[in-house]
Amino acid sequence: MVKVCPRCGYQNIDSATVCARCGYQFPQQSMNLSFDGFSLDKKHMIPVILTNKELIIKDTSIPLSSIINVNLVKIRKRSTWRIAIGIFMFIVASMDVILATAFGVYHLIYASVVPILLGITYLSTGSRIGLSLVNITYQGGQISLYNKIPAIAESFVKCVNNAKMGIFNCK
């Protein structure tokens, strides 16, 4: 979609804030977005609102012009129960092999393949994304926000970076 300049008729890109030909300044769009699921301490949810002029986090108002950098870090957490089951499966498989060898019942060694495969599966899937951390650096400080839903955190970072450039859509 294009944005047509009312002064000269030039077709600008949709996100343009001024006309590329004549310099006409397009009226600012208003934006007031609320983002859910953010916290400062991983426990208590706080309101996070993005407008076309500022970012409001709980009681702190940060002008968009003072924001230096916004980035996203995905924190990986290990699932303890998957690791425990994987280790247990390896122990069971090892005991099967030791006992089958000790008693000369070699055909039981093949039965230990299933616990070994289950152990590998549980250990390999033990790592998952637990939290997303959004670091906001601005003139005067830094704020770190946590979110359990990566898609919301990614959308938030994209929207804030777009708003800093004067682009007020979050598509």
Short recap of the structure:
The protein is α+β, with helices and mostly antiparallel strands. The chain is built from 3 helices and 10 strands, in the order ββββββββααββα.
Report what the structure shows:
It is a single chain. By secondary structure, this protein is α+β, with helices and mostly antiparallel strands. It is 29% helix and 32% strand. The protein contains 3 helices and 10 strands. A 4-stranded antiparallel β-sheet has the order 3-5-6-7, with helices on one face. The protein has a 4-stranded antiparallel β-sheet with strand order 4-10-9-8. A hairpin with a 2-residue loop joins strand 6 and strand 7. Helix 1 packs antiparallel against helix 2. The protein starts with a strand and ends in a 7-residue tail after the last helix. The model has no long low-confidence stretch (mean pLDDT 82).
SSE topology:
Elements: E1 2-4, E2 11-13, E3 32-35, E4 38-39, E5 48-51, E6 54-57, E7 60-63, E8 67-78, H1 80-102, H2 113-124, E9 127-138, E10 141-147, H3 150-164
Antiparallel strand pairs: 1-2, 3-5, 4-10, 5-6, 6-7, 8-9, 9-10
Helix pairs in contact: 1-2
The 3D shape can be described as elongated
- The succession of helices and strands, N to C, reads EEEEEEEEHHEEH
Strand percentage lies at 25-35%
Q: Can you summarize the main beta sheet? A: 4 strands, antiparallel
Helix content: 25-40%
- The chain-level mean pLDDT equals 82
The Rg value, from CA coordinates, equals 27 Å
Number of strands: 10
Low-confidence stretches: none
By helix and strand content, what is the structural category? alpha+beta
- Order of strands across the main sheet: 3-5-6-7
**Kindly, what is the distance between the CA atoms of the first and last residues, rounded to a whole number of angstroms?**
13 Å
